[in-house]
Design goal:
heteropentamer; A alpha/beta (207); B mainly alpha (218); C mainly alpha (242); B: 218 residues; mainly alpha; C: mainly alpha; Four Helix Bundle (Hemerythrin (Met), subunit A); binds protoporphyrin IX containing FE; binds adenosine-5'-triphosphate; binds magnesium ion
Chain lengths: 207, 218, 242, 218, 207
């Protein structure tokens, strides 16, 4: 299945942040979103996974096919690593956490409360959650934050595996992941023109 | 869905928010009333049903903002919205978890506290029954309030302000059930109204609250 | 050799291991003498009848309930000042015992109240301050339960115990100010033994001694358990890091 | 130090936690009492001082966990501890800000609410004075409780459990001041005790609370 | 002024995470802390700035000379960017925010509520706070997280300036900042040996 986005507009509050966003990603490929701070990468991803209103444009894939990983990991600090994983496995109906545990070598941390993890360990836990969703389209927002070099490699491997099984990944990131099947999309090109703001209160007649 | 319920219960129990605490809070509020209004047992027995209900309601209120707030802050709510669970179900489960950790223990303990306040003897059964039927409505209405205020920092007082007016009918029918029973009068109507109110809440609130959560996230 | 050496876990374990059996036996003996004598070999009171015998449970438990909080205050201070782990653990171990004593005093008092005052519960100052003590115990125990790191928990519960003691005392005065009561005044001071008939006085002393020893035995036992738990978690940590 | 106070006030005002809210909560609680205990004005006037004090106390309680919690979560507290401000001063400023946004408006409005509850005429002056002198102690004690529970998620109910017992003497002397005055009796002692209590609190609590904050951060 | 640390031991909860940490940093130089996820970089920094108990060892500088920037930025989302900066300027008694605003080009964001900043904009705000402290020793925990390439460069410049005025920086990071005056300290070498745990509950004699 391919992902096709055409002429999407994205808002944050009342501001139109992006407009005319159009791109396509083939099954088995990744798309890297590039753009300076504040250019709208997070906004776009939230829009794609259905966390915000979609004022205009079309996305051909249902949000049921997408898994989202954000700045905030959604990890419960009072639960152990294992309980955190099991919870999400149950929510997504894929009751097997072994693959996730293995990929990021979480084995020694399983019994630890998430509270007592370091920043990078938390992030590993958050990313391994993706493997539990069983969904084909991954939307990732700066996934490698806090990861050390070793774990960035492991993460890139995870992406490659996912792509190899026909999955899709859209990744907003400032670092180079060294992915083979990846295209790059520069997001600043979609900055809306001045006159596109489309706010009903901006229409004429105000003199 | 079951996973969500067990997770919420586990979280409540793990971090100093378990069954015991709401009870302890209830105990203290009941204790404060005599400090405020004086130790005379005639006065106390007069106001006992009302105080017990208000105490239960406040104990409920104090734990409301935990229903969604923490999940919002650590990003869990974002992930739940994009998960296969229907948001209405999520809301219902969270309200249920809230009831199990606050409303239920309060209901079970209320007759005992009634004792401390000299509740007239006809009231014991009915304080139990009215709380049993009424507190779930408090949890559901509270979940609605929590859903509306989830995006706000320091939403606690605002939440109370939104929710308390919604609690008024429950409070009135709840206390009337007990007051009438304590006086030996017929309390059928009040009790039936209370039950009807709860059912109505279960049916409507999950949809309203789910809508509010989605609006707050975008 | 200073007393503080026993604050070392190892030494404490060794010492308590030797003392515990003796204290336990003495506690059982004291309680048995006090309670059996008190219940079966004292005359009925001319006014109160047999109900007076509940005094052998009520008074000792009430005394212990208060004194255990005092002991927790001292051990908390020791932990804050000298940072002896055993001291903090002893306070932690004592709290549930104090809570139980408070409950026993409340229940026996309530049972006694029915024949004496015609009601199980009244908002008498003495009774009310016991209710307040009960809540202080609850808060203290809940705080221990809520915090995971033991040293942090030790520090926070200790400071709570200090501040709590001040306000518990203030509450006692406030409550007295607020309501005149039904309850007995202090009648068991040693110089005023005449308030209580000798026939009750001596078994009561046995019973009190029994309660004190019982408390010591339980605290030692529970502190030992807490120390073992800490040792287990330390061993697990070491294993994890190996 | 001033900067901290103005910042805390600004934060309280910006995000639905301002002066108005605690008043509204107070109003609703006072309103609930007639629903609970029945509208008879004799009963109401009997229990009015107690209810007003309990209502003020609960309004105070509901906003307590905001004193440190948000600053803890977003890392501000770490930065404050490493800043040149003494922690004791930080605690005192935060308690003061809390009082200005909750205790003070309640104090000013209490006589008005007393009216709704049929407070006997001798009580109006004294409900005002007793709250004016007593509520700062509530804020300071609350700051202590908030400092102890700052590391815990969902510490809200635990916080109440820890703080409410500490409120007992203030509540008793506060209500007695009003009750005695309403009956036309001498309330000197009660009022002096209340004032002494507040002074004691200001002197002791900042140190205890600063200690607790530091412990919680490490 | 130089920073000298000798034989420091760092705990997190009951665990000894690092032991025998010794290093020195000369005035005008930076020290980069390297180490895989969970090796104890955050722990060490928190210990140095006085946020945790110091069980053993010595640091020659008072914590009053240190400024700390952590994973969490301490930004109040309901205040504007300007208000946030002013607050910290007042706390540290340096009532001038212009240098901070200028360095990270925060000018256009000044009136914006911090709530409405993107991840990178927030981070810029957090880092510019350092310029307000007026303190010579900076302790930075993964400062470049969420920054784009451009801003990483600006950040590196800020560090260079700080070092040029005789300041010191200790930086835990996984990325290469390209600093000239920097030494690297590999932190995994300080992992405590098995028998160093120093827990009174580990002494023998328990039978
Ligand atoms: C729930 C109800 C009651 C509670 C919480 C309670 C609590 C206490 C307390 C705290 C003491 C003081 C112990 C000490 O300071 O050494 C005490 C002693 C005593 N109580 Fe009660 N009491 C209750 C009911 C009663 C009743 C109904 C009676 C019977 C008349 C009674 C008779 C006594 C006597 C005779 C003493 C010994 C007085 C003394 O030596 O201090 N109590 N009780
Ligand atoms: N509160 C805690 N109690 C016990 N252990 C903890 C606690 N917090 C962290 N740890 C453990 O201490 C170790 C060091 O953590 P720290 O956060 O210092 O690592 P780090 O080097 O900063 O890693 P990262 O690069 O992932 O941020 C980790 O193994 C972590 O699991
Ligand atoms: N709630 C909001 N209301 C209004 N504007 C917002 C809101 N949140 C973010 N913005 C603005 O929208 C723009 C895009 O933000 P977004 O978070 O999508 O950027 P980003 O590309 O993810 O940047 P970064 O690399 O820093 O994470 C920014 O200029 C930001 O200031
Ligand atoms: Mg972003
Ligand atoms: Mg770290």
């Amino acid at each position: 299945m391919d992902l096709k986005v055409s002429d999407l507009g994205c808002r944050r509050g009342e501001d139109l942040i992006l407009s005319g966003v159009s791109f396509g990603v083939k099954a088995g490929r990744a798309l890297i979103l590039r753009g300076p701070n504040g250019s709208g990468k997070t906004t776009l991803l939230r829009n794609l996974v259905g966390l915000s209103r979609r004022p205009s444009g079309a996305v051909n894939a249902s949000t049921d096919l997408m898994a989202y990983a954000a700045h905030a990991d959604g990890i419960k600090s009072q639960l152990t690593v294992e309980e955190n994983l099991r919870f999400w496995a149950q929510v997504f109906g894929t009751n097997d956490i072994d693959a996730a545990v293995e990929h990021f070598s979480l084995e020694p941390l399983l019994r630890r409360h998430a509270q007592h993890l370091s920043a990078g360990q938390k992030r590993r836990l958050g990313l391994s959650r993706l493997l539990l969703t069983g969904r084909p389209i991954w939307m990732l927002d700066e996934p490698t934050v806090s990861l050390d070099v070793e774990n960035v490699k492991i993460f890139a491997e995870m992406i490659e595996n996912h792509l190899a099984t026909g999955g899709i990944a859209v990744i907003a990131t400032h670092v180079d992941l060294g992915l083979k099947n990846a295209d790059i999309l520069e997001i600043s090109q979609f900055r809306p023109r001045h006159d596109e703001q489309q706010n009903p209160f901006l229409d004429g007649a105000f003199s | 869905m079951r996973a969500l319920l067990t997770r919420d219960l586990a979280l409540a129990l793990r971090s100093g928010g378990g069954f015991g605490l709401s009870l302890a809070f209830f105990l203290i509020v009941t204790m404060f009333v005599p400090f405020g209004v004086g130790p005379s047992s005639a006065t106390l027995s007069l106001i006992a049903p009302g105080i017990l209900w208000i105490g239960a309601l406040l104990a409920c209120l104090l734990s409301l903002d935990r229903i969604f707030q923490l999940d919002y802050e650590d990003g869990t709510l974002d992930l739940l919205v994009t998960s296969p669970l229907p948001m209405e179900g999520v809301v219902a489960m969270k309200a249920l978890a809230h009831w199990l950790t606050t409303g239920l223990p309060l209901t079970l303990a209320a007759p005992l506290f009634g004792f401390l306040l000299n509740l007239p003897s006809g009231g014991y059964l009915w304080i139990f029954l009215s709380l049993l039927v009424g507190t779930p409505a408090l949890s559901f209405l509270g979940a609605f309030g929590a859903a509306i205020t989830v995006g706000l920092k320091r939403g606690g007082l605002l939440l109370s302000l939104l929710v308390l007016p919604l609690y008024i009918p429950t409070l009135i029918f709840g206390t009337q059930t007990v007051v009438l029973a304590a006086k030996g009068l017929d309390n059928q109507t009040a009790f039936m109204m209370l039950a009807a109110l709860s059912l109505l809440t279960f049916a409507l609130i999950p949809f309203a609250a789910a809508f509010a959560v989605r609006v707050n996230l975008r | 050799m200073s007393l503080w050496e026993y604050a070392n876990p190892v030494r404490f374990m060794r010492l308590s291991d030797r003392v515990l059996p003796a204290v336990s036996v003495l506690a059982v003996v004291g309680l048995a003498i006090g309670l059996v004598w008190g219940f079966f070999f004292t005359p009925d009171d001319y006014k109160q009848g047999a109900t007076v015998k509940i005094i052998f449970l009520h008074v000792p438990s009430a005394m212990m309930a208060i004194n255990i909080w005092g002991m927790m205050l001292v051990t908390s201070l020791v932990w804050l000042v000298r940072r002896h782990h055993v001291s903090a653990l002893a306070a932690k171990a004592a709290a549930p015992i104090g809570l139980t004593m408070t409950l026993i005093a409340l229940f026996t008092g309530a049972i006694w109240g029915e024949p004496m005052w015609g009601t199980y519960w009244a908002w008498d100052p003495r009774l009310t301050s016991f209710m307040i003590l009960f809540v202080f115990y609850l808060g203290y125990i809940a705080l221990w339960a809520a915090i995971e790191d033991p040293d942090t928990a030790g520090d926070l519960t200790s400071i709570l115990c200090l501040v709590g003691s001040v306000f518990a005392l203030l509450s006692r005065y406030a409550v007295n100010f607020w309501s005149q009561g039904l309850h007995q005044g202090a009648s068991l001071s040693l110089d005023k033994a005449q308030h209580v008939d000798n026939a009750f006085y001596i078994p009561l002393l046995f019973s009190i001694a029994g309660f004190i020893l019982l408390f010591v035995a339980l605290v030692l036992l529970r502190t030992r358990t807490e120390i073992r738990l800490r040792r287990i978690s330390a061993l697990l940590t070491r294993e994890r890091q190996a």
